[in-house]
Amino acid sequence: SLGYMGSIFFIPASLAVLIFYSFPLLVALGARWTEGEPVTGTKLAGLVVALAGLGVALGVSFERLDPRGVALAGMAAVGAAAHVLAIGRVARWAGGATLPLNLRSMAVALTVNAALLALQGGATWPAGAAGWLGLAGTMLFFTLGMTLMYAAVARIGPVRAAVLLNFEPLVAIAAAILLLDERFGPQQLAGAAMVLGAVLWVQLRRLA
User: Fold this and answer.
1) Strand ranges in the chain using DSSP code E only, listed in sequence order
2) Residue 71 half-sphere exposure toward CB, CA atoms < 13 A
3) pLDDT exceeds 80 at position 57
4) Is pLDDT at 93 greater than 80 in this prediction?
5) I need a surface site. Which of 82, 86, 155, 170 has the fewest CB within 10 A?
6) Is the distance from CB of 85 to CB of 34 less than 8 angstroms?
7) pLDDT band at residue 180 under the 50/70/90 scheme
């Protein structure tokens, strides 16, 4: 999270998102050793197409390539991939119980971030009602999202869960259209179709 959010100070947000969402591809590669799952051409092709579709949907620009931002976003991608793979392993040791695992993980994150925040002078709290509503919504939906992600990884495995997480940026685009009056043009439609098609293709080939 620190790497992902920190990267946007140095590179465009669209590029940071694209680099970060290379993590499903890293999960597929890493699962070869952690899960014994083969890296098939179908899987790799689908993940690459999904990543390319995300780049099209976001309209990624490579004009401002600050090495610091690229490194931070890359660190975030590696961290996310390691996180998903670790959930898969630890959840099996815990007999599939993901709530205690999620609680411990969030407690560690809270401790580390609270210490870093204290070193930087403390928190800056929202100034108005809209800010507090945004903070409350972030806490609620982030907690719900992480809880469901842990449960999904435990039930369908890290690779399938990571492939489905490619939908997350598309949900963010849809939310921007509905809540922020953003426009959804032909480029976003083409990119979304690439992501959706690639994810469905990988999932259907796994069931075949």
Assistant:
1) none
2) 3
3) no
4) no
5) 155
6) yes
7) low
Q: Are 78 and 22 in contact (CB under 8 A)?
A: no
Residues 15 and 62 sit within 8 Å (Cβ to Cβ): yes
Residue in the structure block whose two tokens are 């925040």: 117
Six-digit token pair at 81?
Answer: 């991939």
- The pLDDT value recorded for residue 181 is 67
Q: What is the residue whose two structure tokens read 């809880």?
A: 147
Among candidates 164, 174, 195, 198, which has minimal Cα distance to 54?
Answer: 195
The alpha carbon dihedral of 127, 13, 46, 178 has a sign of positive
Q: State phi, psi for 172 to the nearest 5 degrees.
A: -65, -40
pLDDT digits (tens, 9 = 90+) for 26-45: 888 888 887 777 767 777 78
The answer to whether residues 84 and 29 touch, using CB atoms and an 8 Å cutoff, is no
